[in-house]
Amino acid sequence: MDAALQELQRMAQICQYEILRSFFTGTLQPQFAAEIDRVLQQQFKVDNFHEIGGSIFKKEDRLELRIVKSEITRGLDGALARFEHDNDDDARETLYQHALWVIGANGAYVDESNDDFRIMLGLAKYLLERKDSTPEKRAGILSFYKHYMLQTAYRFYDTELGMKEEGFLGMFHVHNDGSEPSPGDLKALQLNMISVVISAEPDYHQKGIALYVIHSGAPPDQGYETLYQGPLTPQKL
C-alpha cells in the first residue's frame, strides 16, 4: 500500500477514536451503557451460540451499536440445521470450510499442542472424513462446533457494516469470556476503521465490563487501548 494512503488511513482511525473517546469521562453515559447492555443481553441469550458483532455510529449526541448478523452467519445457521437433521453433504462442506477459516485465524498465534486448538483440528477432520453418523453423534459434534467454531469468531463482509452511512465510526464484537483483544483481533488494524472489543462474562452486571479499542494510533506494542473498565449499570448512571 502507498505510504501516503497508509498515513491517511492511520489519521482517519485516530479521528474515529477521538470521536469515540469524547463520549467517555471516566464513566459510561447512560445511553451508551444501555446500548452495551442490549448487545450483551443478545450475546448471553441461552439460544445464542454466535459471537455478536456489528457497527458503531455517532448519531448527534449519542452512540449507537447496530448488531449485524452477517450473510456468513446466516449461512452457517442454515448449514447447522441441515447437518443436524439429515447429514447434508453441502451443509457439512459449509461447516468444514468455516472450521478451516477459524483454524487458520488461530493457527498463526496458537501452538498446535494447545488443547482447544487440537479440538478444532479434530472437528475439522471429522467433518472432512466421516460421511455416516447417527443423529446423536451429530448433535454431540455440533455442541462442540458451536463452542469452538462459532463463539470465537465474528465474520462479515465490509459492505454489511454500513461504512458509507453518515456517522459511521467503526465496528465492534463481543468477547464472552472477559478476555482482552486477541492477536487475531489485531488484524482489524489492516481495515480502514477502528474496532471495539466489548469484553464481558455472563455475570457482567456484577463483574463489570471492559471496552478495548483497536486502532492504528494505539501503542505499537499492544495495538489497542483500554477505553473503559468498570461497572455497567445503565439504570443507575
CATH class of the largest domain: Alpha Beta
E-strand count: 6
Helix content: 40-55%
Helical element count? 7
Radius of gyration: 19 Å
Distance between the termini: 45 Å
Provide the low-confidence segments as ranges.
none
Gist of the model:
It is built from seven helices and six strands; from the N terminus they run ααββααααββαββ.
Write structural notes for this entry.
The chain is α+β, with helices and mostly antiparallel strands. The protein folds into 2 domains: 3-68 and 163-230, 3-Layer(aba) Sandwich (Cytidine Deaminase, domain 2), CATH 3.40.140; 71-150, no CATH class. The protein has 7 helices and 6 strands. It has helices at 3-21, 30-43, 71-86, 89-107, 115-129, 135-150, 204-207, and strands at residues 53-59, 62-67, 168-175, 194-199, 209-214, 224-230. A 6-stranded mixed β-sheet has the order 2-1-3-4-5-6. A hairpin with a 2-residue loop joins β1 and β2 (62-67). α3 (71-86) crosses α4 (89-107) and α5 crosses α6 (135-150). The longest helix has 19 residues, at 3-21. The protein is globular and about 55 Å long. The mean pLDDT is 88.
Write the layout of secondary structure elements.
Elements: H1 3-21, H2 30-43, E1 53-59, E2 62-67, H3 71-86, H4 89-107, H5 115-129, H6 135-150, E3 168-175, E4 194-199, H7 204-207, E5 209-214, E6 224-230
Parallel strand pairs: 3-4
Antiparallel strand pairs: 1-2, 1-3, 4-5, 5-6
Helix pairs in contact: 3-4, 3-6, 4-5, 5-6
